[in-house]
Amino acid sequence: VYPLTEPVQKLEIRAQSTGEAVYISDLPILPDQLYGKFVLATQAPATLDSIDSSAAVTMPGVVKFVSASDIPGTNAFSRAGEQIFAVSEVQYIGQAIGMIIADSEYNADRAAAAVSVKYTSTGSPITTMKQAVAAKSFHPTSVKPLVVGDAAAALAQAKHQVQGQVSCGSQHHFHMETQSALCVPLEDGMDVFSSTQNIAGVQGAVCKSLAQPAGSINVTVKRLGGAFGAKLSRAQLVASATAVAANACKRPVLVHMDIDSNLQMCGKRYPWMLDYEVGFDDDGLIKAVQGTVYADAGYLLTDQSMDGGMMWLDNAYNIPAWNVTPQLLKTNTASNTYCRAPGSIPAMFFMESMVEHVAKALSKSPEDVRTANFYKKGETDIAGQPLTYWNVDRIWSDLEQSAEVASRQQANAEFNKANRWKKRGMSRVPTKFGLDYFGAPFSAHVAVFGPDGSIAITHGGIEMGQGINTKAAQVAAATLGVSVDLIHVKATTALDSANASESGGSYSSELVGKAT
C-alpha cells in the first residue's frame, strides 16, 4: 500500500534543518506585544508574608506585576487544583508567585529579580524519598496493591531468599524549546499559541482561569521543539499565567521561559524506590516477590503513573506470587509529571535488578535466570492480559544467533582478562510494554481543493519531532491514491480538533492515522 511501505522524507525536514521552522518564539512580533517573566519562590515550605513589587514596576519598560489577584476565574490549572500563582503559602522552591510584564524580555528579567518577597518558614523541607518515608509523608492513593497468589507462603517455602532496596532518581526533560505561550486578547475571547502536547487541557485551564467559555479560547499548536511528557500538563500553567497577564494588560503577552526557571518551576520524572524480598529455587526460578514501591509525586499529586508502573513490574517474567504495596510520597518539590515511558521504565528496572540479584546469589548468568522465568505464549500476565501474541522467547533465541552473542561474550572475557583497567560487557534485556488507547479521541479534517486537487489536513495530534504529520500524510496519500507531495498538514487547533486527547503514550500517530 504505497506510500505506507516506502521510506518517506519527514515533511518538515527542510524547514527544521535550515532553521526556517517556526516555533512560538519565532512568531512575528505583534503591535503592543509584551513579555512575561515568572517570579519564583526562593524559600519553602513557608507562608507568604508580603510581596512587594513597588521597586520592580518603576523599572524601565515594566508595565505590570501580575499575581493571583488578577485572575478573574479559578486560580488553578491542573485537575489536582495546583495554583497558577501562590496565594498564602509556598510548598517548593521555584513555585510561581507572580509574573512581571514588560516591553522586552530583558526588562522583564531584570524587574522580576527586583520583586521582594518575605516568608515565614513552616518547617524543614522534605526533598528526598528517604526523608518522606521516614516522616511518613504520603499522598492518598487509589492505586491498589499488586496481589497475586500467596506471596508470604511462597517466600517461606522458597529454598532461597534475597532482599534489598533499589532506586532510580528524577530526570529533567531538557526539551530544546522551553515552556512557552503567546496569548492575544480578542473581542470575543483569546488566541492561545502554546507549546503543549494537550490542546484540550490548555483550552480548559485557560477558560477556567479567565472565567470565559471554552469556545472563546482558540488554542493553536504548529509544532513543539521536543516535549517528552513535560508539556502534557505543565504547559497549562504557563499558558494560564500568560493568558491572565494578557487579559490584565489587554495586550498580547509572550512567555518563553529560560531553562533555569523552567527547571525550577516545572516537575520532572518521578523518582522511584523499591524495597523487595524475592524467593527462588536452585535453578533461578522466581517463586514470589514481596515489597513496597515508592514514587515521589512532589508537593501535590497530579500526573501519577504508579498504576501503570505496578502493572509493568513483571516485565517479561511469569512469577506466580506477588504482594507489592504502592506508596506515593509527598515532598517539598514541584509536582512531578510524565517523562518518556512513565511507570514502565522504573518497573522494568526494578524487575531486572531483582533478576540480577538472584543471579548473583546463585553465581549464575543473569541471562540464564531471565530465560528460566520467561512468560510463554498463551499465559496471562499480572494485569490479567492474555499473552496471545507472545514471542519474546523466540526473539531472544533469534538474537542469540544473529548477534553472535556467544562469540562476542567470549571475546569480551579474553579482553577483560588481558586488560586491568578497561573492561567490556554485553547485556540483553527483554521488555514488555502495554498500550491502552481505546477511547482516546482524535479527529482529522481532510480537505481536497478544486483548482488543483491539492489536499490539506489538520488533525488532533501534536507534531513534536516524532513525524506524526508525515504519517498522517502517508495515510491520506494511500487512501486517496495520490502522491504525498500533494498533501499539506496544517497546525493543530482546538476548533478543528475539539476535545482531542493528549499526544503521548506511544499511540497518537496510530490513532491520528486511523482518524485520517
Detailed description of the structure:
The chain is an alpha+beta fold and 516 residues long. The chain has 15 helices and 20 strands. The strands form four sheets. The protein has an eight-stranded mixed beta sheet, sandwiched between helices. Helix 6 runs parallel beside helix 7 (234-249) and helix 14 packs parallel to helix 15 (508-515). The protein starts with 12 loop residues before the first helix and ends with a helix. The mean pLDDT is 95.
Which labels suit this protein?
516 residues; alpha+beta; 6-stranded mixed β-sheet; 8-stranded mixed β-sheet
Nutshell version of this structure?
This protein has helices at 13-17, 54-57, 105-112, 129-134, 151-157, 199-210, 234-249, 259-265, 306-311, 344-362, 366-373, 392-402, 405-418, 468-480, 508-515, and strands spanning 34-40, 46-52, 62-66, 89-90, 96-102, 116-121, 138-139, 146-148, 160-168, 180-186, 189-194, 217-221, 253-256, 272-280, 286-298, 321-330, 444-448, 455-459, 487-489, 492-493.
